[in-house]
Amino acid sequence: MGLFNRKTETTAPVTAPSAAAATAVADPELARLTGDYVIDTAHSEIGFSARHAMVTTIRGRFADYEGTLHLDGADPAASTAALTIKVASIDTALGARDEHLRNGDFFAADEFPEITFRSTSAEQIDAETYRMHGGLTVKGITQPVSIDLTLNGQVTDPYGAVRVGFDGSATVSRGDWGLTYNAALEGGGVLISDKVKLTFDISAVKQV
Predict the structure, then answer these.
(1) Who contacts 178 (Cβ-Cβ below 8 Å, separation ≥6)?
(2) CB 3.0-4.6 Å disulfide test: which of 32, 108, 202, 204 passes with 37?
(3) DSSP label at residue 1
(4) Number of alpha carbons in the 13 Å side-chain half-sphere of residue 56
(5) Phi and psi at residue 200, in whole multiples of 5°?
(6) C-alpha triplet 79, 83, 84: angle, nearest 5°
(7) Up-side HSE of residue 156: CA atoms within 13 Å toward CB?
(8) Which of 84-98, 115-129, 151-165, 184-198 has the lowest mean pLDDT?
């Protein structure tokens, strides 16, 4: 998923690799991650939250999505990710609000039924945190997004499936995708915040 890109400095003449680069090559745990994965949607969640009326936070999720990952522990820069979300599956636990989010004021789900993310690159922030960069497409508009992710590890479950898990988040401005619907409050401020926090809690199964 492009989670494990570890930057090195290159100069002429070539110098010794940085400590992070050496770890990426030598770390057997990272090497074990290498492979193709499919997101297990039954054990994952893609969510979001935004401020409402300046005083509270509304949270929601998308129930229908699919994603694939290619992790390369030996060559982290070769890792990739693809995610497709069905807009109609939006769920904020209130039917009327969900219908409003699906219509033309917000996502226009009939015309733009899918949200997609495609990774472009990634970098290591520290021993357990990675930053993935890519393009997020909403309503036909693609904007760059960076997602900070924590790698939770890799395990073999009781059914013999090899899983990798991570969680992360990104904060975006919904206006960047033309999601500008709002209403002014009498005392100042607006009904819905422009800033939206995206959250990811992912379990992915290695393919054989």
Answers:
(1) 139, 141
(2) 204
(3) -
(4) 2
(5) -135, 125
(6) 160
(7) 3
(8) 115-129
pLDDT in tens, 10-67: 444 444 444 444 444 446 777 888 999 999 999 999 999 999 999 999 999 999 999 9
Contact 5, 79 (CB under 8 A): yes
Measure the CA–CA gap between 31 and 73, rounded to whole angstroms: 4
Tokens of 17: 């690799």
Q: pLDDT digit string (tens) for 100-149? A: 999 999 999 999 999 999 999 988 777 678 888 999 999 999 999 999 98
Half-sphere exposure (CA, 13 Å, Cβ side) for 157? 12
Tokens read off for 53: 């009326």
Q: Tally Cβ neighbours within 10 Å of residue 10.
A: 8
Task: Quote the strand ranges of the chain, DSSP E.
Answer: 35-39, 45-52, 56-62, 65-71, 80-86, 90-91, 114-124, 129-138, 141-156, 162-173, 192-206
Q: What is the DSSP secondary structure assignment for residue 169, as one 8-state letter?
A: E
> What's the distance, Cα to Cα, between the start and end of the chain in Å?
17
Which residues neighbour 164 within 8 Å (Cβ) at sequence distance 6 or greater?
33, 37, 69, 71, 151, 153, 154, 203, 204, 206
In angstroms, the CA 74 to CA 77 distance is 9
Are 165 and 203 in contact by the 8 Å Cβ rule? The answer is: yes
> Residue with structure tokens 């013999």?
160
- Measured distance CA(107)–CA(87) in Å, rounded: 7
